[in-house]
Amino acid sequence: MRHTQPSDRIPEHTDVLIVGAGPTGLTLAVDLARRGVDALLVEGAGELFPGSRGKGLQPRTLEVFEDLGVLPAVLAAGSGYPRMLNWQDGEQQGEWDLIQPNGPDPTVPHPNIWMLPQWRTQQLLADRLAELGGRIRFGTALAGLEQHPDRVDARLTGPDGTGRTVSARYLVAADGGRSTVRRAAGVPMAGERVDPKPALVADVEVEGLDRGNWHVWQHAPGGALLLCPLPGTTAFQLFAQFGEDVEPDTSPEAVRGVIAARSHLPAEAVGAVHWASAFRPRAALAERFREDRVFLAGDAAHVHSPAGGQGLNTSVQDAYNLGWKLGQVLRHGAPEELLDSYEAERLPIAADVLEISTRLHRAGGVRDGRLRRGPSTEQLGLGYEDGPLTVEARKDLPEDALRAGGRAPDAPLDGAGTRLFELFRGPHVTVLAVGRELPAVPAGVRAHRVDGGVAAAAYGRGLFVVRPDGYLGLATDDPADLPGYLARLGIS
Questions:
Q1: Burial (CB count <10 Å: 0-12, 13-18, 19+), residue 161
Q2: What is the dihedral of CA 210, 213, 214, 220, to 10 degrees?
C-alpha cells in the first residue's frame, strides 16, 4: 500500500530523518507529525511490509495507540486471541488458553492482548500519518552518513538509482535487525542464538479449519505446526519448526507440503501463500542506543525471539519514548540533555524484555501448552524508576505506593465516563493534584485536581507531573518543585 509516489521530491533539509517504515518508524513519524516536527520517513522497499509477523499488541501498546489516535481502527480490524486447539492423528485433543484473559480494571482500559497482523498495524499507522499530513518515501534507502556537530548528512538512493544528500538535525534508525544505519554509525550489536532449530512463518489460505481456534500439531513429524486465524482476513498464520540441519523452503509448494505432512489436511486444502519467511530465533542488543545525533530504535536496537510477543511492542515503546523528547527539544527549546534520557531509559528495558522473550522461548513458550503468558509480557509494569527524568520527592511512602517513574494509571473522573487518559491524550504535559490544591502551571501544561475515587486510590496524595508518554516524571508534596522540573522538559 503506497502513501506517496516514488518520484516525490526529497527535501534537502529536515529536522528528523527516520529510516525504515515498520512499526517503529511509523509510530515515531505519527508522534512527530502531531507535534509539528518536520520529519522525513524513508523506506527502502517499494511498499509496506506484507506479512503478519508481529501479530500481538500488548495492553501498553494499545494505550499508546489510543494516545496517537489509531486505537479505534486497531480495535475494529483486530480481535482477541482464540483458544488453542491441540490435534493428534486427525483428532481434536482439547482446548487451552495461551494467554489467560484479565478481568476489567478501571486503571487499565485495555487489559488483554489484541491480535492484529503486522501488515495491518503498519497500514493503520500509515493511514494515521497521512491524516496528519505526513508521507512515506518508498524505494529510498540509506547509502551512508556523516555526522557533524549540528547535523547528520545522510546519503540516500532513490527509486531511479540516483543519490541525494539530506541534512537532518537527528537521524533515527528504524530499519530492522540488519540495520544499515547502525552499521554506518559504528554501533556494535551483541547477540546469541536462542534456538538452533530454524522456523518458518507464513500467511496462507487454508480450507477445512474453523476460525474459532488457534490450531496446534505439537507432536507432528518433523516439528511442531501451528495455524492461527488472522482477524480481518481469510488467512491463517503458519508457524512451523524444523530440525537443526534443515533450511526451511519458503516456496508456496513447500509451505503446502509442510501443512500436508504435519496435519490431517491435504495439500490441496492450502490455497494462496501470501507471504513466507524463514528464521533462526536469536536475541541481540545494541551496545548503545545513541551515537551523537543518530538514535537506534526497534529491531535496529534489539532483536527478540517471537515468544511472548515482545518485539513489535518494545519497538513501539521506543518510538513513543523518543518522539516526545525530540518534540520538546525541536519545538519547545528543551535542553539537548533531555535526549540523553532515551538510551538511559530504553536500553535497560530492552535488556529486561529480551531476557523475558528468551526465557519463554527456551521454556517452550512458542509451542507448548504447559507454559502460559501473563503480566510479565503485558508491559504495563515496565517503568523508569531509576531513570534520569524520575524524581520521587515524597517521604515515608507505603511499600505498595505508586512511585515516580511508573506508568500513570487510568481512572474514571466522573459519572459521565470521563477518564484520566482523556486528560493525558495529546502531546502535552499534565499536572495532577491528588488530594491537594492545584498550583498554577505554565501555559501549555494541562492541570487537574482529583479528590477521592479510583484515581485518588491509585495515585495516593501528592502532586504528579505526567510525561507526554504517560509515565510519572515527578511526584512531590511541594509545589515549589514543579518549575525546576518542568524547565528540564523545556516548559517555563
A1: exposed
A2: -70
